[in-house]
């Protein structure tokens, strides 16, 4: 295929993926109210708990959990944002297939097999990170709200809260994809399992630094949960690397199966016979110089029977 044909195919794949995302957004707009209720459950549970504690264990009649909209356009923009997230997730199998269909013809059969494995692991890992983030949100909110004066009424802004929750889910989901990069590096022969195991202290330190920077909350729960989860996934990837190295025999030298007193086999070597050299033109053996004989060896002097001072 020419470069122009590749660009045309890319345009077709992107157009199909865009249509799928738009259709997913339409479905997401219809489900945006239900999705918003799910996202606000951690906040509503905490607000309900605080309201009961504030009223001496009794919930006021007519109590509702709500958010504050600072702009007139915020409710519409909030539904559109939720619709976009739902559309991307719902249409993910289709637009990921379009991406795969564009890349797959340039891969070998072995590369395609590993790509299937990575694609099959990427979705569950991202989903696991998103679920963990949703659990961390409830713990983080409870920790942050504990510093507020009991007489203070909590009213969160809708757009900020949704951005906070979706940002946490995105950070955790992307962080859970890190072990796939380690597995890819081991399969490509860049890093062995033994070397990765020796780097575990540096890796755990980097995980905690990354969690401290990437987690949008100031509480220690989100950072600790993310760093520990990434550490567990790192050691799981190291186990995979060790098994893969053992299967391919990367840690064994070429002479590992040969005994100390065993001669190496030359059956696999094809020795080419060497022909006799042709005589040099213009060379006459008669005119050859006479070889020089070796010099006569000189006898070593015998030691004296007496020293010089004995003679005097």
Structural overview:
By secondary structure, the protein is mainly alpha-helical. The chain is built from 12 helices and no strands.
Summarize the structure.
This protein has helices at residues 3-30, 32-39, 41-54, 74-90, 92-103, 109-145, 158-175, 178-187, 193-198, 200-214, 220-248, 308-311. With 312 residues, the protein is an all-alpha fold.
Query: What's the number of helices?
Result: 12
The rounded Rg comes to 38 Å
Approximately how much helix is present in the residues? 55-70%
- What letter string, H or E per element, gives the SSE order? HHHHHHHHHHHH
- β-sheet strand percentage: under 5%
Report low-confidence residues grouped into runs of 5 or more. none
Distance between the termini: 108 Å
User: Mean pLDDT, as a whole number?
Assistant: 77
Category from helices, strands and their pairing = mainly alpha
Number of strands: 0
Net shape? elongated
Which descriptors apply to this entry?
312 residues, mainly alpha
Please describe the topology of this protein:
Layout (H helix, E strand, L loop, with lengths): L2 H28 L1 H8 L1 H14 L19 H17 L1 H12 L5 H37 L12 H18 L2 H10 L5 H6 L1 H15 L5 H29 L59 H4 L1
Helix pairs in contact: 1-4, 1-5, 2-4, 6-7, 6-11, 8-11, 10-11
